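Appendix B. Chain record.
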Amino acid sequence: MKRINLVVNGIRHSVEVGDSALLLDVLRDQAGTTAVREGCGVGACGACTVLVDGMSVSTCLALAERYDGAEIRTADGLPADDDVVRAFVECGAAQCGYCIPGFVMMTHELLSENPEPDEEEVARHLEGNICRCGTYTEICRAVTTAAHRRAAR
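Structure tokens predicted for this chain:
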């Protein structure tokens, strides 16, 4: 076992991990995040997506020890009035909601890189995320709604 430090949503966590410990499990079991979810276990669905230093990471594939000292942001750490979350709610972009934290984090990444994406850019950026309920139209509308609101500020 090895002790590492993670900063999750602004809170420092000192955790013990084995060589094969996945970041997903450490975030859920030791840092108490619930929005990080295992959907596929092979990095193909996006349900486990977090932002590490602003870049998306599939935590079901990431060995925790590689993230010693990293700044990790999960959907749990977003403010109550988060503009992306608000757009997802208003656009009806969630049915069961299981995948939505991953989509929200990917949207934050996209809008930080490209504040005014067109529909094709949105679809391309989110193509690694799967919504089993099929709310893709609403999800894309939520992303563009958040982008338009940010541009208007």
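Further analysis of this model is presented in Appendix C.
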